Amino acid sequence: MPISIEESRVPFRGACKSVSNAVAPMTGTVRVLSDLHLGHSGTMIEDVEQLAPLIEGADTVIFNGDTFEERCPAFYEKGHDMLGELDALCRSVGAEAVYLSGNHDPDSWEHSWVDLCQGDVFVSHGHAILKYISPWSRNAGKTAQTIDGLWQEFEDSEQTIEQRFELTRKSCHATTVYQPQLGRSLISKALTVAEEAWPPSRPLSVIRTWINSPEDARDFVAEYRPHAKFFIMGHTHFPGIWKSGGLNVINTGAFFLLLNARTVEIADGRMTVHAIKRNRSGEFVRGVQKGVFSNLPLTTSE
What we know:
By secondary structure, the chain is α/β, with parallel strands linked by helices. The chain has helices spanning 52-55, 73-92, 140-155, 161-174, 186-196, 201-224; strands at 30-33, 60-64, 96-100, 113-116, 121-124, 230-233, 240-244, 247-251, 262-267, 270-278, 284-293. α1 links the parallel β1 and β2 (60-64).
């Protein structure tokens, strides 16, 4: 479908200097996607119209962080242009787009989290659960001291959820963003795997994060949203559903090389989780159902 971006509501670098969850009430069908990484050479999204089947039919689509590459100069311009097209696509099919901040776009959005279903469902990118944001980063050791200093200031404050997300935003700027030029051929994918596996400590850190993230999510929610029963996140690019204590942790993966994305839909008191696949036309569509949860309160944001 043709898309006009004349009225797109796209951000400018450094547009937001605070965090909030003051999202307008949501009703009807709400869908959640994360980690589109628009503009990045490793994203699987070549044209935002590929996302149309995942957006059509929704009243609200929550883009749960790392929607585009705000912090990567090499990818920013293309990502910003694709973001405008995405926003226009949502408007053209009658879906309200809600953008939440991630570690790749920490300053572009007003909102960092949203509570749904009368507080039963907490939605946020997931980087806030990790002190060092991306502990698998090649430069994690160099940035740890700066982040430790930020945490010292935080521990001397009231430690509200707003302050925690402001700490997270500042910590994002203490980290560096890797800017590889990734190709789509089999050889390029093989080289990507080899590069991601170096140094040897890096894949071990990634695996450790994957293993620990459900418990980290549980601890975060216990501190700031103790009544929540679900945490929908992304960030680690590792899709799945886990039970940690009384919390269901749902990770929607990423539209990125090597791993897959998932989508969450909440409607009429029912939540479903689907894998995302590509059809013969190259569009992203819902695939195998990975989970279903019933008897949720009405879908409204707090």
